[in-house]
Amino acid sequence: MGGRNGGKHKSFTCHEYADMNSRERVLAALGHRVPDMVPIDFGGNQSSIHIRAYKQLLQYLDIRDNDIHYCDFFEQAVAPCEELLQRFDADIRWVRPESSLVPENYVPEVEGKYQGMWDPFGVFWGNSAEKDTKDILYYDPVINPLSEMKTVQEIKAYDWPNGTDRRRLKGLREATRRLRKNTDYAIGTPPIGCIYEYTTFMFGFARALRHLQKNPELIVAAMEELEKYWTDYATAFLREVQFGSEHYVDIVAVNGDLAQQHGPIMNPKTIYEPLIKPIEKRFSMRLHSLADIRVNYHSCGSIPMFIPHFSEMGYDAVNPVQVSAYDMEPCSLKKRFGRMITFWGGLCDSQNTLPFGKPEKVGEEVQQNMACLKPGGGYVASVVHNITPEVPPENIVAMFDAAKLHRPYQ
Predict the structure, then answer these.
(1) 125 lies in a domain?
(2) What's the pLDDT tens digit per position in 135-191?
(3) Does residue 135 lie in a domain region?
(4) Is the dihedral of CA 205, 322, 286, 186 positive or negative?
(5) How many structural domains does the chain have?
(6) pTM reported for the whole predicted model
(7) Which structural domain range is residue 276 located in?
């Protein structure tokens, strides 16, 4: 655990089977203490559901949601309604500023041959303007504002957004206060940091990887500007949810995406360690200095080569635990890294079993994965990234019902 968060969190010892409320359960798991039950998460920006699958699920369960909003318009992921969260025994509630929630009836902007939406960084997330919007599954970063820049000076001179602008945080304070005062759920935030990964949106994925090899100073310059923005934004965000000396959030999400199905997207030793890690570690340490929070870091793909770094950098948890990727077998992950970090996700193979298996197979896989990941605490049960549009509702129900069945520690 050397140096992780200053050693302030306990690890792997006592067995505490007394009944806990949701917040106590989540914090125990994140502290590597054994809670009464494995916490369940559903509805975060990396643990939610595509709008198509969501509507089918609501119909299947005879639940109504008359106020559907996207929590991530680009991914077409929605913020699930409270009735559904309670149906799946979710222990976390995610607080979002009003500006980050996009209504279902939003009409995409048209930009040349694309339709979609601009983000604050000048990236246009789009799909073909010729398509009917109902046929669009996702929006991709198709206009990349740094793509033609060739010098550090150009990058530094770019019109970077203002992270201190509190207008983007409207509604956050009231929503957070209401949750903490009226419920016992753990409270999490949407991503309030995304440094390296955002360079791939601003330069374009392939160009960013080429720059890492041939012009790393350009990526570093962009990451330094992104660090400034996210530090300002996270500071403003956490001040907004501070009441007296206490912050009313427990978990903050940070995005990364350093890997793909078969391994890292860059050399961990020659690129990640000297170029990316110092900046992202500095940001993580800053988050911990601002509030008593736990950092839940997102990276899809095969990440075992990064996990020791994550622990050292102050990441308390990593999601989504993509069990179908190379070297991501749950029992092996827990044996090698269970003392370093909390695994958040990993319920069921989202590329094969969940969309295409029978409900019985889904339930069996959930049981197997939880048996690997839950011993000793350090596990939050959740989906492997957002549920995709083709997943049948009966499989979603089977996944969460199996999680509920196998979550007790006694």
Answers:
(1) no
(2) 999 999 999 999 999 999 999 999 999 999 999 999 999 999 999 999 999 999 999
(3) no
(4) positive
(5) 1
(6) 0.94
(7) 4-106+145-406
